[in-house]
Each structure stands twice: as C-alpha cells, then as structure tokens.
Amino acid sequence: MAESQIQSGRGGVGCGVDAFQRCIAAPCGATYDVGEVLVSCPRCGELLDVDYRWDRIPVPRSLKHFEEAWARRDDPHLFSGVWRFYALLPFAPREVCVTIGEGQTLLQRADSVGAFVGLKPGRLFLQYEGMNPSGSFKDNGMAAAFTHAHLVGATRAACASTGNTSASLALYCAVTRLMRAIIFVGSGKIAFGKLAQALDFGALTVQINGDFDDAMARVKEVSQQLGIYLVNSVNPFRLEGQKTIIYRVLEGLRWETPEWIVVPGGNLGNSSAFGKALYELYKLGLIQRMPRLAIINAVGANTLYQLVEQEGIRWHGGDLDRAKIRRFYERMEGEGCRANTIASAIEINRPVNLSKCLRALEVCRGVVREVTDQEILDAKAQVGMGGLGCEPASAASVAGAKRLVSEGIIGPDERVVCVLTGHQLKDPNATVAYHTTDQELFNRVLGSRGVRRAAFANRAVVVPNDIDEIVKAIQLYG
Ligand SMILES: *Cc1c(COP(=O)(O)O)cnc(C)c1O
Ligand SMILES: [Zn+2]
Questions:
Q1: Which numbered atom of ligand 1 lies nearest the CA of 267?
Q2: 48 near 32, Cβ under 8 Å?
Q3: Which of 62, 109, 117, 402 has its CA 20 to 30 A from that of 420?
C-alpha cells in the first residue's frame, strides 16, 4: 500500500484507507469514519454514501487496466468479480476483503429476446447475475458489506429479506465461518428456492407475521437493540459491491458505454449503486458519456413509479420534497395498500434507498416504468427460451425495455443492457404454474394476480402410459 494512504488514516479500523462515510442530504453532508457502523445519518436521518479521497487513490487512467487483473486470477482477490475492481471501492485494506468467488457473471448478447423487446440484432445484452454463488446479484453487495462487518469485528449479521439477501448472507456465513447469520422473512412471502438456501446454509431464520416492509422495520429495531450488524441495502458498503455489476457490464462491451441500462426496482439498492458507479467513473474521466437508466417496478409494488412519474418527485440536488413523500406513504398506509406481485424480490412498498435512487435517476437521465405480472411472466418465458432463464423479478427489466421501445423512448438501434438479477431456479413455482396444463394450479398461483394467459407456455403433453400413444404424441408434436 502506498505510504500516502497509510498516513491519511485517522485511527480506528478505517486506518490506512482513503474512504469515509458521508450523508447524502444536501444541507447536512455530515461525514463519518469508515469504522463506524451506521445505516443512516445520526444528525439528519438520511442515507449515507461511502466516499473516497480520490486524489490520494491510485486509480488507473483507463478501465482497460482492469483486464490485467483477470489475467492473474489465481489470486482470489483478482478472481473475484468485485475485488478485482478494488481501486474503485477501496474502503477496506485489501487483505481483509472477503470473497467467496462472487461476480463471475456474463454479459450475453441475446438476439431472440431482443427481437421480442423490439430491438435490432446485436442491440440487447443480458447481464446474467444468476451465476453468482448464491444465484443472485446480492453476492456482489454481500462481499462488500461482509467485509465491512468483518473489519469492525461483527460476530452476528442480520437482514430482512424477500429471499435473496438472506440466501446470500447465509452463504457467506457458512463458507467463511466469520459470523452467525440471522434472517427475517415475511410469512409466505419467500420463494422456496431462496428459503431452501437459507435453511440449508444454517441461518437462524426468523419468520415474521407480515410482509417485507414489516420485517425490514423489525430487523432495524432488533439489530440496533442487540448490536447486530445489518446487511440490508441501507448499508452503504453493500452498494459499493454492487457498483461492480456496472464495471462488468462495461467490460463485456469492451469498455464502451451502452445507451441504456435497465434494472428491476425493489428496495432500489441496485439502481442507486449503478448511478453512483457511473457518476464516479464519469467524474474520474474513465467514461466519456453517461448511459441512461430505466428502473422497472411491478404494478403491484410501484411506489417509485408513482412518486417519480405521477407525483413528479425529483432529487433536486438533495433537496427533495420529503413532505410530499411522507404524505404519499400516509395515504398508502391509510388505504391499507400492501405490495402484491409474483415478482417477490421486488414486492416492496417502502423502498429503503428511495432518495439515493432519485439521485441516480437525475445523473443518468433516468425513467421509471411499471409492468404487470402478465408482462413479467411473458418476458420471463422469452428469457428462458433464449437460453438463460431468470426469476420473475429479473424479467421485469426485459418487460420494461419492451415497453420503453414501444413508447419510442428506447430506439430500436440503441444498445440496451437488461440486468437479470436472479437465477431461474429461485422460484420454480412461478415457472411451473406458467407452463402448466393444470388450470387449478395456474389460477391459484397466477390467476389470483391478474395473469390471464400464458402466451409462451411450453405445456407438457399428457399421454397414457402406452408405447403407441407415446410414439403418436411425439410424431404429432415433435
Ligand atoms: C433484491 C432483488 C431485486 C431488487 O433489487 P433492489 O436493489 O432491492 O432494487 C431484484 N431482483 C432480484 C432477483 C433480487 O434479489
Ligand atoms: Zn445528515
């Protein structure tokens, strides 16, 4: 490590790094040491960023530099899709950075899905984050949050989760044995693939009678009371890890910037991290142009869509209309409105990163759209037929891109990256219900959510256990 970096440390666990935490609110902007464990600004309650003294950090002059790291991937920190970009998130000394091999993900050209979306060949790319060790993009963030937790000496880490954060935390705890995982889930609100992971990996699983928003409120209280480290995306260090998804997208395009990046919006951690990553690269002169960001809500969990596209809420340099947002939530509460969508990973009414996400929308000239569960499942079937497969929430990005093309906001010639956030096998119930011949199953799982048809269903052919009938069926359908 360079001498200047060592000298800049101000004592405590942050010693030796040129990073600090900063409140994102415009009038406040208070700063805190990286060694402090905070999920909001003690002075004003807003979210915190991890920020860097960039002038003291040896940032490469070109993103191409990172290709060298990949050539030395026998080093676990250079194998990691998060830590091989260490120079862009150096909040902890390199040697304490925790990795379990996250971020080995692909940017894949997807022409058949592109045709469905309405794009010309070679214009749609899918960033498949389902290849992460726990099967979702959450591992990128967990590598970073877990590193911070380890840095401050935590022995227990907790999260509220619609499933993937808990699967990820449980995995990091199981592999590293550094901490005990405590996860909070809403009753009946978690896809079985995800619950199976948390249970298998040995996490202490607390099931709350309520939904994600209830579990989130409780885990904040409990972690405060018991001094447990919180790894939800209110944790600013988690979002540092999720910045690397953007770096890998750019890497997949040989460091060219696409016109659009499309991502599902739940708690809005990913979209916030993407905006931060891109803005930092731009300020550092490592990209010359900002791509536009499209954030896609499900109709049944469309807080961001309503606030931005209907209520006109904007970041306004950090001076956002908090009173209007508060009134919006009060109205939602008053009407007993609960999030409801087949895309359980984005089934969230009170996105914890709302203000950061508004900032990302501003710097990326972003748009927000909502898509129905019908559109989500049809898009998911197309992703599957294209050979990748994803969980319902992930397909919201593809459904949203399709919508934006049909509105003429995205041009058919523009380069679009849709982020597939989670693996196909996370939620097999939704997939099987879509393709089923069993009308009762379809109605129970999907019909109750307003899904009427399965335009791209690949239905099993039901045949008697008889060789002639089987031969006949194959000749008829094959
Ligand atoms: C967590 C998650 C999301 C939502 O991401 P946010 O950062 O909370 O907006 C979307 N898809 C999948 C598969 C997820 O696990
Ligand atoms: Zn503050």
A1: 8
A2: yes
A3: 62
**pLDDT tens digits, 115-157:** 999 999 999 999 999 999 999 999 999 999 999 999 999 999 9
SS3 264: strand
H helices of 386-435, where?
A: 392-406, 428-435
Q: Under a CB-based contact definition with an 8 Å cutoff, are residues 304 and 297 in contact?
A: yes
Cα 173–Cα 176–Cα 177 angle in degrees, nearest 5: 65
Distance (Å, rounded) from C-alpha 89 to C-alpha 147?
Answer: 12
Planar angle of CA 411, 417, 423, nearest 5 degrees: 140
Tell me what pLDDT residue 188 has: 77
Q: Residue 26: which of 8, 9, 3, 49 has the closest Cα?
A: 49
* Residue listed under structure tokens 């935490």: 21
Q: What is the CA radius of gyration of the chain?
A: 22
Half-sphere exposure of residue 248: CA atoms within 13 angstroms, side-chain side: 27
pLDDT tens string 27-38: 899 999 999 999
Cα-Cα-Cα-Cα dihedral of 235, 240, 246, 251, to 10°? Answer: -150
CB-based contacts of 47, cutoff 8 Å, min separation 6: 23, 24, 40, 41, 234, 236, 353, 355, 356
Separation of 265 CA from ligand 1 center, angstroms? Answer: 7
d(CA 83, CA 431): 34
Give, for 222, the enclosing helix (H) or strand (E).
helix 212-226
Q: Measure the CA–CA gap between 267 and 215, rounded to whole angstroms.
A: 13
The bound ligand whose nearest atom lies closest to the alpha carbon of 22 is 2
Please tell me what DSSP assigns to residue 207: E
Bridge partner residues of 182 (DSSP): 158, 204
- Looking at residue 130, its amino acid is G
Distance 279 CA to ligand 2 centre (A): 21
Residues in the chain, pLDDT under 50: 1-11
Do residues 246 and 272 lie in contact, with contact meaning Cβ atoms separated by under 8 Å? no
The pTM of this model reads 0.95
Cβ contact 186:208 at 8 Å: yes
Distance 346 CA to ligand 1 centre (A): 6
